[in-house]
Write a structure and sequence with these properties.
Blueprint: E1 4-7, E2 14-17, E3 21-26, H1 30-33, H2 38-41, H3 47-50, H4 53-65, E4 69-75, H5 86-90, E5 101-102, E6 105-106, E7 128-132, H6 143-150, E8 154-160, H7 162-175, E9 179-188, H8 192-207, E10 211-213, H9 215-229
Helix pairs in contact: 4-9
This protein binds tricarbonodiimidic diamide.
Length: 230
């Protein structure tokens, strides 16, 4: 029997279905979160993202206890930048560009220290890590195949940044038919205004491309699943 419980959410309760749900953790990489990385090179206050780490660590722990699939993503490129469109490479006026040497190795390059996930949220054995060249986690990745093979229809979406990779991924997922709940205190933006409006945009118009709830609403529902599964 499929175990289902409801999460109080905007704009309506969200169906959490055991065996059909994955938690996706987007781009919690040192290059976005730590001073000296890509995020700071774009002129951003990286401190805004660090506050996501404690609630997200608790949510990941609850998902693991409930047997929910946890999928991590990392934004980055091959060392020769062959998968980085010139428009992405040259956009804006960063103090350092993708591929330049930064404090944690070459910025947003696969295999470099800065490209990897922060220690507090490191994947454990058996968890999927998707390396993506774009902002969305579906573009040029194996994510859809993995979700299809696992029978996933519901996505709990977390990570950074709310208005960029979280939005792009949620919109891509919504178009593919996944029901997405974005966890408000487990996503972060460099800009408080974008955080607020970014979350409002998802749940507006009757949930135009998803649901929104905080981790205090999601964790008890995960705990119910964990108890039912035990
Ligand atoms: N700059 C910014 O807000 N975000 C990114 O470049 N990537 C992600 O959101 N992961």
């Amino acid at each position: 029997m499929t175990e289902t419980t409801e999460i109080p959410a905007a704009p309506s309760p969200y169906p959490l279905i055991a065996g059909r749900t994955a938690l996706i953790v987007i781009d919690m990489q040192r290059d976005f979160l730590l001073p000296g990385g890509f995020g700071e090179s774009l002129g951003n206050d990286v401190g805004q993202l660090l506050k996501v780490v404690p609630p997200l660590a608790a949510l990941i722990a609850a998902a693991r206890d409930a047997g929910i699939m946890v999928i991590h993503t990392r934004e980055g490129h091959e060392p020769d930048l062959s998968d980085c469109p010139p428009a992405k490479l040259t956009r804006g006026a960063p103090s350092k560009r993708i591929g330049d040497d930064g404090k944690y190795g070459r910025i947003l390059i696969r295999g470099e220290y800065g490209h990897d996930i922060v220690d507090e949220l490191a994947p454990i054995d058996g968890e999927v890590v998707i390396d993506k060249p774009g902002k969305g986690a579906f573009y040029a990745t194996e994510l859809q195949d993995i979700l299809t093979a696992a029978g996933i229809t519901q996505l709990l979406v977390t990570g950074v940044t709310t208005e960029v990779c979280v939005h792009t991924t949620t919109r891509e997922a919504n178009d593919r038919g996944y029901e997405c709940l974005v966890v408000s205190d487990c996503v972060g933006s460099y800009f408080p205004e974008f955080q607020r409006v970014g979350l409002e945009m998802i749940a507006a118009q009757g949930g135009i491309f998803g649901w929104v709830a905080d981790s205090a609403s999601v964790i008890p529902a995960l705990t119910i699943l964990a108890v039912s599964a035990a």
